[in-house]
Design a protein that fits this description.
By secondary structure, this protein is α/β, with parallel strands linked by helices. The protein folds into two domains: about 90 residues, Translation factors (Elongation Factor Tu (Ef-tu), domain 3); about 110 residues, Rossmann fold, CATH 3.40.50. About 15% of the residues lie in helices and about 35% in strands. It has four helices and 16 strands. A seven-stranded antiparallel beta sheet has the order 4-3-7-1-2-6-5. The longest helix has 11 residues. It is globular and about 50 Å long.
């Protein structure tokens, strides 16, 4: 972990309120695991706390994030221009662990793809990807992983399966029964609960990247606590022990 000076190379609107930002770092960040994140300083002087963003992609000396405008911090970030400077703290948190399996299933939706993009790239064609969003237009967010032929669900039925992504997974999961598989997921709590319901009878191994608000990113403030089944220390920090957890160890 280190604090890097960074310069914005690109900050473009992908579609609707989704943006992609590429940053040139003052020096290479070093080893990054899928699922890790950064804390990024927003240029507005009124915004004191940095904002957490999953590491969407990286190469030597550069790092990329994909984010959705949801409040003042991300709105200000979306207005930042090329060559503007900022600070990046990272890589932070515990990422995904990949164990040898017959198949890997990745279930995500909306901005959740930002947390699993590096994982999908790492798994390459071994990943069976399920992605859900509101409409066909939003599928532009996953153009970078189109080569992996993700199964898509849109709530309005404008592309792929009409409905939510977990229902789509349910309709296709029989083909995976009897295999040594592992599920990886990232999305809102309601989606995670639905995924859990689909696989709880057979306790399929599953890693989940939780979406929690973070203040410091360093585990100092305990503002991103996640309740687990650990009787001695039930509350874990998403920024330190997470953001990736064993689905069967957290309380939903």
């Amino acid at each position: 972990m280190d604090d890097f000076e960074a310069k914005i190379i690109e900050n473009r609107n992908i579609v609707s309120n989704y943006f992609l930002m590429e940053l040139k770092l003052s020096k290479p960040m070093g080893m990054i695991r899928p699922g890790q994140f950064i804390m990024l300083k927003v240029r507005d002087g009124d915004i004191f706390l940095r904002r957490p963003f999953s590491i969407y992609d990286f190469s030597k000396g550069t790092i990329t994030i994909v984010y959705r405008v949801v409040g003042k911090g991300t709105l200000t970030l979306s207005e930042a221009g090329k060559n503007e400077k900022t600070l990046v703290l990272g890589p932070l948190g515990n990422g995904f662990s990949i164990t040898k399996r017959d198949a890997y299933i990745v279930i995500t939706g909306g901005i959740g793809v930002a947390g699993v993009h590096l994982l999908i790239k790492s798994l390459k064609n071994k990943a069976c990807v399920f992605y859900g969003c509101s409409s066909k237009e939003e599928l532009r967010v996953i153009d970078d992983i189109a080569r992996f032929n993700p199964a898509v669900a849109t709530l309005d039925g404008s592309e792929g399966f009409k409905g939510d992504v977990v229902t789509l997974f349910r309709k296709q999961k029989k083909a995976l029964e009897g295999k040594n598989v592992e599920v990886f997921t990232c999305g809102p709590e309601s989606m995670i609960k639905s995924v859990r319901k689909e696989i709880e009878n057979i306790k399929t191994p599953c890693q989940v990247l939780v979406e929690e608000r973070m203040a410091c990113g360093l585990g100092l403030c305990f503002g991103c606590a996640v309740k687990t089944i650990d009787e001695k220390e039930p509350y874990k920090r998403a920024c330190k022990e997470g953001p990736v957890f064993d689905l069967w160890q957290i309380s939903l």
